[in-house]
Protein backbone atom coordinates (compact mmCIF):
# COMPACT_ATOMS: atom_id res chain seq x y z
CA UNK A 1 0.00 0.00 0.00
CA UNK A 2 1.40 3.38 -1.02
CA UNK A 3 2.25 6.02 1.56
CA UNK A 4 0.15 9.09 0.73
CA UNK A 5 1.09 12.75 1.15
CA UNK A 6 -1.42 15.60 0.94
CA UNK A 7 -0.74 19.06 -0.49
CA UNK A 8 -3.32 21.71 0.51
CA UNK A 9 -3.56 24.62 -1.91
CA UNK A 10 -5.78 26.69 -4.16
CA UNK A 11 -5.81 29.37 -6.82
CA UNK A 12 -2.93 31.87 -6.65
CA UNK A 13 -0.58 29.43 -4.94
CA UNK A 14 3.04 29.89 -5.97
CA UNK A 15 3.67 27.44 -8.85
CA UNK A 16 7.10 26.30 -7.70
CA UNK A 17 5.97 25.87 -4.09
CA UNK A 18 3.28 23.42 -5.19
CA UNK A 19 4.97 21.61 -8.05
CA UNK A 20 8.47 21.22 -6.63
CA UNK A 21 7.36 19.23 -3.55
CA UNK A 22 4.73 17.43 -5.65
CA UNK A 23 7.35 16.16 -8.09
CA UNK A 24 10.09 15.60 -5.48
CA UNK A 25 7.85 13.51 -3.23
CA UNK A 26 6.59 11.46 -6.20
CA UNK A 27 10.19 10.92 -7.27
CA UNK A 28 10.92 9.62 -3.79
CA UNK A 29 8.07 7.08 -4.17
CA UNK A 30 5.21 8.70 -2.24
CA UNK A 31 1.68 9.00 -3.64
CA UNK A 32 0.81 12.69 -3.64
CA UNK A 33 -2.69 14.20 -3.74
CA UNK A 34 -3.55 17.87 -4.15
CA UNK A 35 -6.47 19.08 -2.05
CA UNK A 36 -8.28 22.35 -2.77
CA UNK A 37 -11.64 23.96 -2.01
CA UNK A 38 -13.13 22.00 -4.94
CA UNK A 39 -11.99 19.38 -7.45
CA UNK A 40 -11.18 21.43 -10.53
CA UNK A 41 -8.25 22.94 -12.41
CA UNK A 42 -6.31 25.34 -10.17
CA UNK A 43 -4.51 28.44 -11.45
CA UNK A 44 -1.14 29.04 -9.86
CA UNK A 45 1.08 32.13 -10.00
CA UNK A 46 4.79 32.90 -10.24
CA UNK A 47 6.31 35.18 -7.62
CA UNK A 48 9.64 36.66 -8.61
CA UNK A 49 12.06 39.13 -7.10
CA UNK A 50 12.88 42.03 -9.40
CA UNK A 51 15.27 44.89 -8.88
CA UNK A 52 13.53 48.13 -7.97
CA UNK A 53 10.52 46.47 -6.30
CA UNK A 54 9.99 46.53 -2.55
CA UNK A 55 8.31 43.13 -2.65
CA UNK A 56 7.87 40.24 -5.08
CA UNK A 57 6.02 40.58 -8.36
CA UNK A 58 3.27 38.21 -9.48
CA UNK A 59 2.67 36.71 -12.91
CA UNK A 60 0.36 33.95 -14.17
CA UNK A 61 1.77 30.49 -13.56
CA UNK A 62 0.84 26.89 -14.28
CA UNK A 63 -2.56 25.27 -14.01
CA UNK A 64 -2.96 21.93 -12.26
CA UNK A 65 -5.92 19.73 -11.31
CA UNK A 66 -6.96 19.22 -7.71
CA UNK A 67 -7.48 15.57 -6.74
CA UNK A 68 -9.75 16.02 -3.73
CA UNK A 69 -11.90 18.72 -2.12
CA UNK A 70 -10.99 19.80 1.40
CA UNK A 71 -14.37 18.58 2.69
CA UNK A 72 -13.62 15.07 1.39
CA UNK A 73 -10.12 14.72 2.86
CA UNK A 74 -9.81 11.84 5.31
CA UNK A 75 -6.68 12.88 7.19
CA UNK A 76 -6.06 9.38 8.56
CA UNK A 77 -5.27 8.24 5.00
CA UNK A 78 -2.28 10.59 4.75
CA UNK A 79 1.13 10.33 6.39
CA UNK A 80 2.03 14.01 5.98
CA UNK A 81 0.86 17.35 4.62
CA UNK A 82 2.58 20.06 2.58
CA UNK A 83 1.37 23.67 2.78
CA UNK A 84 2.67 25.81 -0.12
CA UNK A 85 2.66 29.59 -0.18
CA UNK A 86 1.66 32.23 -2.64
CA UNK A 87 -1.53 34.21 -2.06
CA UNK A 88 -3.69 31.09 -1.63
CA UNK A 89 -3.07 30.77 2.15
CA UNK A 90 -4.44 34.29 2.72
CA UNK A 91 -7.96 33.13 1.84
CA UNK A 92 -7.64 29.39 2.51
CA UNK A 93 -6.95 30.01 6.22
CA UNK A 94 -10.58 31.16 6.50
CA UNK A 95 -11.89 27.77 5.31
CA UNK A 96 -12.93 25.63 8.30
CA UNK A 97 -12.19 22.43 6.34
CA UNK A 98 -8.58 23.37 5.67
CA UNK A 99 -8.17 24.33 9.34
CA UNK A 100 -9.61 20.91 10.27
CA UNK A 101 -7.06 19.22 8.03
CA UNK A 102 -4.08 21.11 9.46
CA UNK A 103 -5.23 20.66 13.04
CA UNK A 104 -5.42 16.91 12.46
CA UNK A 105 -1.83 16.79 11.25
CA UNK A 106 -0.32 19.07 13.88
CA UNK A 107 -2.41 17.45 16.62
CA UNK A 108 -1.18 13.96 15.75
CA UNK A 109 2.48 14.90 15.29
CA UNK A 110 2.43 13.90 11.61
CA UNK A 111 5.01 15.60 9.37
CA UNK A 112 4.05 19.06 8.14
CA UNK A 113 6.04 20.96 5.51
CA UNK A 114 5.14 24.63 5.15
CA UNK A 115 6.70 27.38 3.05
CA UNK A 116 6.37 31.10 2.40
CA UNK A 117 2.78 32.18 3.24
CA UNK A 118 1.70 28.58 3.96
CA UNK A 119 2.26 29.01 7.72
CA UNK A 120 -0.74 31.39 7.74
CA UNK A 121 -2.93 28.29 7.43
CA UNK A 122 -1.06 26.39 10.14
CA UNK A 123 -1.34 29.45 12.38
CA UNK A 124 -5.09 29.73 11.76
CA UNK A 125 -5.49 26.08 12.77
CA UNK A 126 -3.70 26.71 16.08
CA UNK A 127 -0.69 24.62 15.11
CA UNK A 128 2.17 27.10 15.63
CA UNK A 129 1.94 28.03 19.33
CA UNK A 130 5.24 27.30 21.02
CA UNK A 131 6.90 26.14 17.79
CA UNK A 132 10.02 27.35 15.98
CA UNK A 133 9.26 28.35 12.38
CA UNK A 134 10.32 30.36 9.42
CA UNK A 135 8.11 31.88 6.73
CA UNK A 136 8.26 34.60 4.13
CA UNK A 137 10.07 37.36 6.09
CA UNK A 138 7.12 39.77 5.87
CA UNK A 139 5.17 37.28 8.03
CA UNK A 140 7.50 37.47 11.03
CA UNK A 141 4.94 39.43 13.09
CA UNK A 142 2.14 37.03 12.05
CA UNK A 143 4.22 34.07 13.21
CA UNK A 144 4.93 35.75 16.54
CA UNK A 145 1.24 36.65 16.93
CA UNK A 146 0.46 32.94 16.44
CA UNK A 147 2.75 32.14 19.37
CA UNK A 148 5.68 30.87 17.29
CA UNK A 149 9.35 31.72 17.57
CA UNK A 150 10.35 33.12 14.15
CA UNK A 151 13.78 32.32 12.69
CA UNK A 152 15.06 33.83 9.44
CA UNK A 153 16.62 30.68 7.97
CA UNK A 154 16.24 28.67 4.78
CA UNK A 155 14.85 25.68 6.69
CA UNK A 156 13.69 25.35 10.30
CA UNK A 157 12.89 21.95 11.80
CA UNK A 158 10.85 21.74 15.00
CA UNK A 159 10.00 18.10 15.58
CA UNK A 160 7.82 17.08 12.64
CA UNK A 161 7.23 20.68 11.48
CA UNK A 162 9.57 21.79 8.68
CA UNK A 163 9.31 25.31 7.33
CA UNK A 164 11.06 27.48 4.74
CA UNK A 165 10.92 31.13 3.67
CA UNK A 166 10.19 30.86 -0.08
CA UNK A 167 11.01 28.90 -3.24
CA UNK A 168 14.74 29.82 -3.27
CA UNK A 169 14.96 27.60 -0.12
CA UNK A 170 13.45 24.49 -1.77
CA UNK A 171 16.54 22.30 -1.63
CA UNK A 172 17.14 22.81 2.10
CA UNK A 173 13.39 22.59 2.84
CA UNK A 174 12.80 19.29 1.05
CA UNK A 175 16.09 17.80 2.28
CA UNK A 176 14.99 18.40 5.89
CA UNK A 177 11.38 17.37 5.27
CA UNK A 178 12.45 14.11 3.68
CA UNK A 179 14.56 13.28 6.75
CA UNK A 180 11.46 13.70 8.95
CA UNK A 181 9.22 11.90 6.47
CA UNK A 182 11.54 8.90 6.09
CA UNK A 183 11.65 8.53 9.88
CA UNK A 184 7.88 8.93 10.46
CA UNK A 185 6.45 7.44 7.24
CA UNK A 186 9.04 5.21 5.60
CA UNK A 187 8.32 3.63 2.26
CA UNK A 188 8.03 -0.18 2.28
UniProtKB/TrEMBL annotation:
- Pfam families cross-referenced by the UniProt entry: DJ-1_PfpI
**What is stated as this protein's family in its record?**
Belongs to the peptidase C56 family.
Q: Which PROSITE patterns match?
A: PEPTIDASE_C56_PFPI
NCBIfam families documented for this protein: PfpI (TIGR01382)
Return the protein name.
Peptidase
Per the record, the domain of life is: Bacteria
The stretch of residues making up the signal peptide is none
InterPro entries from the xrefs? Answer: C56_PfpI-like (IPR006286), Class_I_gatase-like (IPR029062), DJ-1/PfpI (IPR002818)
- Coiled-coil intervals, chain numbering: none
Any idea where the DJ-1/PfpI domain is?
A: 4-179
Amino acid sequence: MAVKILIVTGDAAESLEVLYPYQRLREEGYEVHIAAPAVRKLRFVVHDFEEGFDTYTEKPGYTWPADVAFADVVTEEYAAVVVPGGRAPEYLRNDPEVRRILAAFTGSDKPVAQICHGPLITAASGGLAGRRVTAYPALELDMKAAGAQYEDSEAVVDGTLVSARAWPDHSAWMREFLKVLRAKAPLA
